[in-house]
Sequence to fold (181 residues):
Amino acid sequence: AGDGWDAVNAVYDNPPESTEQVIHPDAYPDEEPVAVAVPDRSNDRYERFDLERETNTLGEATIYAMFWANDVVPENHSTYDYDQRLSAGGGGDTVVPYRGTDGEDAYVWRSTWDSTADAREFLAGYRAVLDEHGARARGDGVYVIESGPYADAFRVVRRGETVTVVNAPTVDDLDAVHARR
Fold:
């Protein structure tokens, strides 16, 4: 604010590390993204791939875009605003892709949130995305989309401030990709 070009130069020297820091300037530079680990719980039918990258992160902007593109943003946005409750409050996330022995793809997406309330907001939004695509709840956080471009099985579980989404071609494949613990 009052530092003029020195402040601009300081940001070039230490750029934001996350879209959260761009969307919410008050989070920069102190609120750094959290590294989210996804332990490999796959069996011999699935294996991780694309491990050349240290992390595969979506971030707040992409999470917002997912909600906006699927018509579940609760506010009336005519253009991307990015600052809204379903995607705000993210601490960090990681997506790990898997490939099955039959060539089918799957993934585990784990996100951490600043609070349990933020995790609940995200979970409600994610379930609304599944609903938008005709998902049927099977119980215990499992959903199935029977047809269309997103036809797959999903397990969505919140534990405190962490939400884990497991995606696989069938309900039986969910544990093959990421066994419950």
